[in-house]
Amino acid sequence: MSNPASVTTGAAQDLREINTSAGPLRYYDVGDGPVLLFLHGSGPGVTGWRNFRGVLPTFAEHFRCLILEFPGFGVSDDWGGHPMITAQGAVIPFLDALEVDRVDIVGNSMGGGVGINTAITAPERVRRLVTIGGIGTTIFSPGPSEGIRLLQEFTEDPTRQRLVDWLRSMVYDQSLVTEELIEERWTLATDPETLESARRMYGKAAFAGMMTAMAASDLPMPWARMHKVSVPTLLTWGRDDRVSPLDMALIPMRTIPNAEFHVFPNCGHWAMIEAKAAFESVVGEFLQRDA
């Protein structure tokens, strides 16, 4: 195991790097107490820091908060392959390298899927799990969703306007799509390596190929395994999510044995940002209940 090293960035907290059995990973480490691991979603210019920096001060009052930057999304090095698949194999090596035995997990969208997979394959490592949209499968809504289609269009032809269109699909309150946010996302999303990684996930041919491969595989679809999640789980969702429509929550809500479900009104895909105060209250109570 390598000792964590600080990496210079412009962020308010130091970005650190650690070597793991699977490869190097970068992360933030803030606060003291039981360990709470934050796992970010996918999309152009995404980072764990941008997903969770707003709620970090509140949770760091009670937890040691680790924000993991998945490989291939522009912060941690690209490990090759499909970034959404390599993300699945990053959590346990990361925890092992930090000598952390057990964590609570908060996962946004793709990060929620990684959290569910971790809870199924290594239940002894997860105490409680919180997901934010993005899991399950649509029952009534057509697919791919509006937000995914806009993401594909940006990936195929990365213009500033296409990025703005996609960002606006992520939120209910359009005023949240500020020039600062657009510039932040544009800078990282158009980095050649990050863009190439995004095309492996959301290019139209790549996306269609992944769907075909999953349908042809003998392995069960991810949503068909959710009955195997044994840890207490809180599913959170924005009622107005245009990336992961609300009906996606029906199968996880019904099949995860110890699942609770909370819907935030007037809220899109980023519940931790758009419903910040309510999210902190609901999730904080869940994580600290019967502590």
TrEMBL record:
UniProt KW keywords: Hydrolase
Keyword hit for Acetylation: no
Molecular functions per Gene Ontology: hydrolase activity
Classification via InterPro entries: AB_hydrolase_1 (IPR000073), AB_hydrolase_sf (IPR050266)
Pfam family, one: Abhydrolase_1
Residue span, AB hydrolase-1 domain: 34-275
Coiled coil: none
Protein name: Alpha/beta fold hydrolase
Organism of this sequence: [Mycobacterium] fortunisiensis
